Structures are given as structure tokens and as C-alpha cells.
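From: lab user (bench 3)
To: helpdesk
Subject: output format question, protein + DGJ

Hello, I'm new to running complex predictions and I'm not sure whether the block I got back is the full result or only part of it. Here's what I submitted:
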Amino acid sequence: MGITYDEAQRIFHLDAGDSSYCCHVAGDGYLAHLYWGKRIRPANLSRLISPLIRAFAPNPDPVNILFSLDTFPREYPAYGNTDFRHPAFQVQLENGSTITNLRYAAHRILKGKPKLEGLPATYAERDDEAQTLEIEMVDALTGLKVILSYTAYEAFNAITRSARFVNEGNQKLTLLSALSASVDFHDADYELLHLSGAWARERNIERRPLAPGMQSIESRRGASSHQQNPFIALLRECASEDHGEVYGFSLVYSGNFVAQAEVDQYATTRVSTGINPFDFTWLLEPGQSFQTPEVVMVYSDAGLGGMSRTYHHLYRTRLCRGEHRDKERPILVNNWEATYFNFTTDSLVKIAEIASVLGIELFVLDDGWFGKRKDDTSSLGDWVVDTNKLPGGLGELADRVRSLGLELGLWVEPEMVSPDSDLYRAHPDWCISVPDRSRSVSRSQLTLDLSRQDVRDAILDMLMRVISSAPISYVKWDMNRHMTEIGSAGLPPERQRETAHRYMLGLYHILEEITAAFPHILFESCSGGGGRFDPGMLYYMPQTWTSDNTDAIARLKIQYATSLVYPSITMGAHVSAVPNHQNQRSTPIEIRNHVAMAGNLGYELDLTKLTEPEKRTVKKQVATYKEIRHLVQFGDFYRLLSPFEGNETAWMFVSEDRTAAFVSYFRVLAEANPPMGRLRLKGLDPKLDYSLVKTGQTFGGDELMEVGLNAPYLLGDFQSATWRLEAKE
Ligand code: DGJ
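Helpdesk reply: Thanks, we reran it on our side. This is the complete output you should expect:
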């Protein structure tokens, strides 16, 4: 149960759900990795470490030529003494040396899970939900202490890891890299899976066999990014959606990261992840400490589906916080694709009037309500209502929207400043920049320097003022550029390479303050769609705008792949107009709705332009979503058919007590005389009978899972169907 320490064998044994993780203090104080996988009873696994003379494997102890760190499985490898594989950290001493030698010093086992200072992390609500092991490793020469932290959750197959560096010596130390965790796998018979993409094409599933050498994904953009998500998994080669072993690594961080797997000469695999060491250093004065972000490591022997459901449960209930965590999320209409920058109070209210008739619950005013923001070239930073567009301000808009029975939501982009703004004219030094270099713009904007307290204070002041200026119940927090010319006017030269991480710490500080000040507000994060869809942001804001691409067909892949790690309740999904604004594709309103129903449903189109039949359809869709919303947002998610593997996609939601389910099926392109497909369902109770809500037909849960439903015979491109199932008494 939990975490135990075998004093005689010096073995730590961690049990987390159906998984175990073991490590060992070897005779000389090096910390060895022994095991991570399916749950086992405590065993003397130190036998796995077999000393052997290997050519070109140097020996730290000249009298023990059987021992080399190069062949030793390690928990948190240091650099410089016989291990040629990638280290988990590197520290520069005052004399220029970059070598450290960590040995075990002490450990403690704690109930629950301590907070990570200034960083987002999963949490335990009660002390009996989790145990935490802290192992202190010390470099005797410098006095550097590294505290390795491991939390084992009782109910989840999840172990979280992080490291804390404390300079207990009397010289300045410079961290050149400080990853969150490193795990040495005994072999290399795995495939690497990651989620890669671009703006409007976020998170494609990439899967490839491991090869000798280093394979890595990373972000150097100052944000977790559209291009790579801070997540990788190792899969046994035979592992599939429902079978086989999978090891997931999800980094709770929103900035530059690296996630990598190195296969060495003996076909062992070292996986490590954390803050990207590229352009990163951190000066640790004597007495100072540095906390790495947390990595959430999930083991599944039930394929990717098993891994995903562990992440979903853990992130929905023990990463997301606040009063909206367990509440159903409102169906919204957002005016962005309806009006872009061109609106007035009256034109917005017209949309809200129809929204109210259709049963929509929240009206979100997107970009363009402030300063002189007629397009995206100005005014970020000048968060004062544009009274040409909104003569009565946000107050009048709120009154009119609320009198229709809808709540009001507001878009902000507080991390940015336009060069054409009063804020920039007054404080040109407040943005990320480097002396004597020009400042590259992106979407005509610069990044505010959140590493500075004065800038953070000003942003917080501004946000407090804007958010409390009207009865706002939802905030969409956007961020639309990546960092270039990274440097801070607030930091001395030797700390310039701390800027990107200090920015993240500053952002997290602001998010903590603002979400605590407005606990009733539902916050949604966004970065040009899903450019910062990561666990770090979810800690503060329990939902994310999944992608700027609202095309239903593109969304099949985006939402399917996002679901590998992130629960449906965290995904914003909107029905938009056709031809679609991102790719000009026209699809029926049914499929647009069926895809968007798999997340937090919204509409992002000019409702005043809908025909009467379309309005009737949307009204029905909204009513149906309200009936299944709890199932979608709080149920278990099962992927049935992958859009990455063919013309069809299917997925389903099952309620926690398995008495209700909602199944969606999508066929992208029409096919003449197609084969008859079967849809085998998952996650039902085999002993229960379920009836289809539409037809009343009844089937056994076992029958639905082993035999399946007939896939519908649909003609035409972009077709979809859904089924609701209810268990019979
Ligand atoms: C990017 C977001 O992803 C969009 O939804 C929209 O809010 C625009 N920014 C507004 O500028």
C-alpha cells in the first residue's frame, strides 16, 4: 500500500493504483531505477543491477572496475562521472566545471502531496489519497542538494515527479539544465508517440519505433505551443487502443519544454522531460533554491485508452480546480467568427436575442471591444472600452444580454502589448526585448515582460478593473504570439537566460491571483486556439479553446488526438458557419454539431443569418446537448475508430455508473456500395441491458461490446450519427 522503504535492501516501493515503481540506494549512494510497470509485491529487485566489465565503460571507483554509471539504471542522472547518456541536469561551478556527483543523503515519506512553490501541479484533496516520497541527494563537493519528489496516487495509475535544487554550499551555482524526471527503461522495444502540429492543425498523433540515439520533441517558442504538446508516451510495439503497455509522460508546464527518449548502445532507453535547457540557465546563489515543474507519469496495461482515462480522471478531478471543476459548463455563443472586429452593442444583442431563443446560456464578446481596435494592429494594453462600438460600455451590454437570460463573457489578451498603444508609448521597456536589437512583431504585437513585478502589478490592476466593471461570468484568456529576442530589462546580464521561465512563473502568479479574486468566473485559456493546451494552464483555467480550426472534419483529428491526454470537459468545441473560415469546407450542420458535442459545446457564427429550419435544428441540438452534457463532461471517454486510420471516426461516453452512454459515429467521404461496418462499443456493463433512446430497441451490454451495432448506411460526404443508450431497470 502506498510507499514503503525496505531498510535492509534499501529499496523504495511505490504502489499507485494498479502500478508499481521501485528504486534503490546502491551501496555507494547512487540512486538506481529498478522497475515501473504493472503492480507487483515488494521484491528484492536490486538483483537486477549486475556489475560487469564493459569496454569503454569508465569506473568512478578505481578499485571497483565492475562498476560504471554508464551501465547503471539511474533515477536522476548527473553529468560528468562515467555516464555518457543524457543527464537529467547540469550545474556549472564558479571554477567553470560542470560536473556534479549526487549521492543519497536522506529520505522521508509524507502523507498527501505538498504544493509545488509557484508552479501548477496535481494535488491531493485528502491526505489518504496519495503519499509522497522525498529523496535528498547531495553533491558533497559543492553542497548542492537535489530533492527528488515522487507522489503515488492511491486510486490512479499515476506517479508524479519533480526535483528541487537547493544551494547549501557557499559558491554560486548555475543550473544549465534541470529536467523534472528521468526514467531508465531496461530495453528499447517501444514506439514513441507524441502530438505534433501547427496553428489550426494542432496535435496530430505521431507514432514511430524507437531507434538508437536521441529522439526528442521540444518547444523553443516561449509557450508549450501548437507545434508540440508537452507529452510523450512509450508503447510496447504491439500496444493498441485497448491492449498492451503504455507509459505516458505529461509535463505540467506551459513554456519551453523538452521530452526525449535516448536509446543507448545496450538498447536501454532513457526518457526524460522538463524545461528545455535550450537558452536556459538559472543562477543559484548560496541559500537559494529552484523548483522544476512536475511530470505526471501514467502506466497502462490496457493500451492508450487505459492511459487516457487515467489522465482524464486525474486532470479533471486533481489538476483542474475551483468551483467550476465539478459544474456543468455553459453552452455559449461567441461573436468572433460572426463579426470579427466589426460590431456594435445593437448587433451583438441581436445575436444574443436569437441565442436566448435557441437555449444558449452564455454570450461571449471576443476581441475588438477596447482601445481603437478596429483590426489586430493596435490597442493591446489599452483595456478601455471603445465607446464608438459600445456606447453604453460593458455595463449596458451586460444588462441587455442578461435581460435575455444569458450570462456575459469577455475576451482579454493581457500578456500582450501593441506597439500602437498608449501603454507601449508610456512603457516601451515593459516588453520582452534585448538591448540595442530591434523588436520583432508577430500579429503586430509584443510580449509583456511578466518576469517583472511592476509589469505584473499593472496587468493585475488592469484585469481587476476590467473584470469587475460589469457582471462578467466567463473570461476567455488569449495569447497570440511566441517569444523572440528574449530578454528582460529587469534582470542583470547573468540572469538574462532565466527570462523565459521567469515569464512563466510570472504568468502563473497572475493566474493564481486573478482566479482567486474571481472564484465565480469560469476561465477558458486560449492561444490562437490550442497553442497552450497543456496541464499547466488547466490548473488555473479548467477549459481551453481547442483550436482556431472549427471545421468539423479537421476537428475529428484534433479532438481525437487531444483526448489522448485531456478530458472532454477541458475542450472548447464550437459549431461555426460554412464554408468554414479556416479551410472553406462546407459540411452539414448535423456533423458540425455532433463533433462539437464531444466537448464544451458552443456556437461561433452569426445566428441572425441562420434560416428558420437551421434555427429549429440548432434549438434541438442545444436541447439534446443539455440532456447529455453531464455524460459528456463527466463520463468516461472511449475511442472506437480513429480518424488517423481511415474514413470513419467513432467515440463514446459512458456514465460513471455505466447506466448511460452516448455514441457518435462519423463518415468523412461518401463511398458507393460500402462494406457493412460494425461498431463494437466499450465500457458498458456486460450484465446490463441497454435500450436505444430513439428506437426503444434493447441489447445486452455484452452483445453491444462483443457483437456491436450496425454502422449506419449513410449517403453523401460528411455524415454522422449518434445513439443514446440507457440501461433498463
Ligand atoms: C485567437 C483566438 O484563438 C480566436 O478564437 C479569437 O479569440 C482571436 N484570437 C481574436 O483575436
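A quick orientation on your result: The mean pLDDT is 97. Let us know if anything else is unclear.
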